[in-house]
Amino acid sequence: MSVKIVVPASSANLGPGFDSLGLAVDRYLTLEVLDDEASKWQIEHDFGPKIPNDERNLIIKAALALEPKLSPKRLKVTSQIPLARGLGSSSSAIVAGLKLAQYFAQTAYTTEDLLQVATKLEGHPDNVAPALLGGLTVSVMLNGRPHSICASFPAEGLLAYIPDFELATKESRQVLPNELSYKTAVRAGSLGNALVAALLTNDLALVKELLEQDLYHEPYRQKLVPHLQLLRKLAHEVNADGTYLSGAGPTVMTLIGPAKMETLIKKARKQGLTGKFIKLEVDTLGARVER
Ligand SMILES: Nc1ncnc2c1ncn2[C@@H]1O[C@H](COP(=O)(O)OP(=O)(O)O)[C@@H](O)[C@H]1O
Ligand SMILES: N[C@@H](CCOP(=O)(O)O)C(=O)O
């Protein structure tokens, strides 16, 4: 029987929810098991020569991190999630590897076990949690372990602008400061708290205000993603529900009803934005195994 693992993309941070908030969206990585008794680990993909086809591949590394004795398999991965664009491709790959190991392991690993290993490999829980659990997740590290609270997301529509260039998360984290002043940290925390409360109480007007007030990362990443300010300005002109940098960028996400999307896209094209616009929906299921 053939086994298929499907993992959604994710959009992290949502403004002031840096390294904590994440949303699963309906673009998918699909991992197929072609042979579960292969002589060596092998993975077919069309991501190009920079992505390994053997044990050095992130998907296989993640599987072996959970279950080092897992027997070699021949795999095939296809993905609708662009690499290094701020839609959590690395987290989806890690979660796919962990779901594979969970499926074939002798040990009964729990979802919490997977979240723990995924967070360790990714370095922060905000993408791996929604990729694993679906929907909106609010995550925190407690005594070295990730805890994620799942919630539903109130927006009517999501429009992602995916620029023509890649931006590795590692590179985009290098421009962040090592420290914030006490005053800024208190303000940044209160913005994040209020955003979560506004999301959980469906207060879209407040969500719109708060999504755009981040003090943790967007001000520092601005220089790497100049289209963020432009899109935010255009989104205001059509009265959209808020715009934020998706993950570490360069993708920019706008909360906007479907009726206004075309107008925003036309305005952006007129201003010379040549990247891809895609309409997204929230994925509420998270990673799953299909037989
Ligand atoms: N399916 C995959 N298989 C192997 N490696 C992957 C896969 N998807 C992503 N990666 C690795 O993760 C990198 C992108 O991760 P990152 O810079 O965090 O960006 P993002 O997660 O926002 O797409 C890729 O350049 C690649 O090295
Ligand atoms: N909180 C992280 C999120 C990175 O998300 P990605 O989709 O760009 O990998 C950050 O902002 O660095």
Automatic annotation (TrEMBL):
It is found in: Cytoplasm. Keywords: Amino-acid biosynthesis, ATP-binding, Cytoplasm, Kinase, Nucleotide-binding, Threonine biosynthesis, Transferase. Pathway: Amino-acid biosynthesis; L-threonine biosynthesis; L-threonine from L-aspartate: step 4/5. PROSITE patterns: GHMP_KINASES_ATP. ATP binds at residues 82-92. The keyword ATP-binding applies. Pfam families: GHMP_kinases_C, GHMP_kinases_N. The keyword ATP-binding applies. Its EC number is 2.7.1.39. Its main location: cytoplasm. One of its GO terms (molecular function) is homoserine kinase activity. Residues 196-271 form the GHMP kinase C-terminal domain. PANTHER family: HOMOSERINE KINASE, HOMOSERINE/4-DIPHOSPHOCYTIDYL-2-C-METHYL-D-ERYTHRITOL KINASE. Catalyzes the ATP-dependent phosphorylation of L-homoserine to L-homoserine phosphate. Belongs to the GHMP kinase family. Homoserine kinase subfamily. This is Homoserine kinase. The lineage of its organism: Bacteria, Bacillati, Bacillota, Bacilli, Lactobacillales. The gene is thrB.
